[in-house]
Amino acid sequence: MRYVTADEAVKLVRSGDTVCCQGGASVPVILQEALARRHAELRDVTITSGFNVHKDPAPFCKPEYKDSFLVNSIFLSADQRAHVADGYGSMTPAFLGEVPRMFRSGEFPVDVAFITCSLPDENGYCSFGISADIAVSAAEVARDVIALVSPNIPYLYGDCLIHESKISAAVQCDVAPFAMTFGEPTPIEAAIGANVASQIPDGACLQIGVGGIPNAVLNGIKDHQHLGLHTEAMTDGVIRLIKEGVIDNSLKKVHPGVSVAALAIGSKDMYGYIDHNRSMEFYDVAYTNNPFLIAQNPRACAINSAIEVDLTGQVCADSIGETIFSSVGGQHDFMYGCSLAEGGRTFIALPSRTAKGRAKIVANLAPGAGVVTTRFQTQFVATEYGIVYLRNLSLAQRAKALISIAHPDDREALEQAACRRFGYSFLRLK
Hints:
Distance between the termini: 71 Å
Structural class: alpha/beta
Largest sheet: 7 strands, parallel
Helix content: 25-40%
CATH superfamily of the largest domain: Acetyl-CoA hydrolase/transferase C-terminal domain
Radius of gyration: 22 Å
Oligomer: single chain
Number of domains: 2
Number of helices: 15
Strand content: 15-25%
CATH topology of the largest domain: Glutaconate Coenzyme A-transferase
């Protein structure tokens, strides 16, 4: 590889280019900072990325750089959220599993890919480390690939490899993946987790996210047997179950015996555990999120979250009213894929109220809110007050079921709204 400084490497970026930055816990901040230093000489550079866990504002997210850099996120994250909310950037809606195809077809062109990778192995292959997701396809189609190369990046197996000959410019550094730890679930999270866990069968193949509720679900299934893992994000919680033998992948049809993911987010200890670990493989998100591949694993279970759920079962998970918060991500991919699987189940897990006391089970979604999972797809919905199954219920029956797991102080208003909307079909259920 040609090793240069970060400032020298980003000279490959031209005005009018689209730059795709690797995300997850592998955001190439050093390259982003170097690119931002070129703001005076660049114009109309579009910067895109998927899910990022980096919390500080991205270096290019400054109002004074608005003519130099345009954020066009695929999954809006904390590092860019305020910049987009202020009108200096935007978001392109897309199912996460379809993004690689958009890159490869040229529908969403990528000129330069910024990645963070491991040292090359004896055959010259570097690993994308803990974030294969959209980085694999972006690097495949980019005119130039610029890489931060660090001995602290785990070497992972699967299709998350790039040969050093494909890297246009490399920057030696000692960056490590962004480490995150999560405390014990709150009582509300624990109750939600227990409700979801009660409906997950032995032998299930899991897709589960990041945060307090997913951790609580994992706590609730610690006594299950022969679980599998085919997910987007690998976390400390699933590693714990792998070490304990709860997740053994013995009943999976796709990659039996192997845990499959697109990215990993967690502690330094977890990153050390997955480094050169043959029992897990990381893939392009077009592969992990393929609904028809997901459906091949029996008892596939998808556990996802929401911002709001209305009385008909519509799920908003990407916006707070008109304000974009994230994106559809992989929720649809896994909700659809798991619903097709033999014995598959899907879950929406959320607290009944926000930390500020606003209801999350609502009569109607907020004006401008986006529907990520349609009412036709929603199966189980869980709060701390219980879990209900909506798939075989009428609209009025759904309303009654959802009201039963809403916050007690919200139920009377929700019943009144249901009476107005559904009339006698709801009243007769009381």
